[in-house]
Here is the input.
Amino acid sequence: MAPPGVVIGDALAADLCCFPTRDQYFALVRSFKNDAFEMCIDVCGVDYLLHMERPLPEGIVPTRFEVVTNLLSLSKRQRVRIRVQAGDDEPEVASLFELYPGVEAMEREVFDLMGILFSGHPDLTRILMPEDWEGHPLRKDYGAGNVPVQFKEAPGPR
Amino acid sequence: MSEPTVRAIERLDLLTAETSEGAQELQRREFTKPSELGREIGAVLLANDLHIDPTQVDLERRDDETMIINMGPSHPSTHGVLRLMLELDGEYVLRCKPVIGYLHTGMEKTGEELSYIQGATNVTRMDYLSPVINELNYSLAVEKLLGIEVPERAVWIRMLMSELNRISSHLVWMATNGMDLGSTSMMIYGLRERELILAFFEKTAGLRMNLNFVRPGGVAADLPDGWQDDVRVICDTILERTYEYDQLLTGQPIFRQRMIGVAPITAEEALALSVTGPVLRSTGVPWDLRRTMTYLAYDQVEFDVIVGTYGDNFDRYSIRLNEIRESIRIVRQCVDMMPRGDYRSQDPKVTPPPRARIGESMEALIHHFKLFTEGFHVPVGEVYSAVESPRGEIGCYIVSDGGAKPYRLHVRGPSFVNLQAIALLMRGGSVSDAITTISTIDPVLGEVDR
Here is the structure.
């Protein structure tokens, strides 16, 4: 099903899990789309800062950030999970917008909360956090609870 | 830092900074890239090599002919704090962009700080109209990682509760949709019927909303004595009342004119936008996870998957109304087929010892204490599991590092994704149609923003 060269592993509660490289990612998703996977159901990012030595199939170089994409085939009733290693310092993967326009908001959410860039995305802006927010809250080195809350000051009494 | 007591009128920059979301907002056309413009006019299939009639896509529109207005974030018809920016030509919507995040409270981040036992209290607050289904989704994901089976009775109790929850969620939708269209009686009736179900939830779980009733390993408590009678009364009453709704709304000429043919979406567009739930089914795609990727015991009960034809507002309305009836069918079967037995797994790993044992056994006390302070450990792995919520596919992606807290908890909110269809649905309609369109998408902002 997957094109040659893509590492395939086991997945809990999915039919298949693929581990493409960043270069293979877009082509792999396109081949799935042509193979009756009509929907991209979910895109999310994971920051593996504390677990760089996680179990991965052989030949996969773990990086700090990972983008996890879940595809769904309505006609075959199958799910496929794609885990792509997105890089360490400036994580970036190709946007799936060309294939599935519905990933627009999901990729924006990943960018907003995890700081992973998606090349080819039409409008990669923050979606949940305010525009001038500093940092990406779901990163593991983002100090939750020990940084002052960033809110704009009130305009004062009228 | 500026003087906190400075008069607002003297610091206009502060005042505008207060309300600006910068690039997240709908910009004037001269600042908009063509690809962005395509999103905002809802040209989804452009990306899929399917062409849109160029006469319909008025890319050449001067900014002084149109007006960009805000709708929300606290507009009564936006069901929460949804802010829509609309570009209007007279009364007709040309472009639309939802600006969200006003209710973002970092629940995914919070989920990483809570143990698996506490986690259900967190996810249940995301989609506050269907708390049981949120908990169920989370619990099923954790159970898949743990590899434990829940007893038969727990499965059926979960099914009973989630169908009751689906009814109550759709009733709130009927109520708010009625009110958006000026039928304030529907608002009262919908909430009145929902109260029956919430009262039953209170009797069963102790709380009306945000129950924390479904937990990894089973459910929190057994059903109360005499629950069959309560549930039968609920079913009879609500089924009868759905026919009253038919009289009140379905056949009414004004209601039909506002709904039929308004804001249509095709199956192709819905699939491309990853839209699920009643919005997808309204286009004729028979996709309901309860049937197509079955979980719990949905393969043992009889029910129909309701689909529409035209994908318009009226189809979405009829699907939800009929899903109430189908859920009542399922609930009745749950009453008849409810097995006996344990209501939670007897696996000591996830289930605390019975209350009576704690008084007499030191080990049981320690076990109980450990379970509620440290929590249980979940094997290393990652899982995505999904169930059908009243709004579509709600999914849960958990990464476990072997500890007592999830390393990463991600929830795929159906209304977050469905909201993307709004630009497509609203285009070309009037502002009054925009209100019904927001309503039939049925976004719950707690889940959109998480």
Q: What stands out?
A: Chain B has a mean pLDDT of 84.
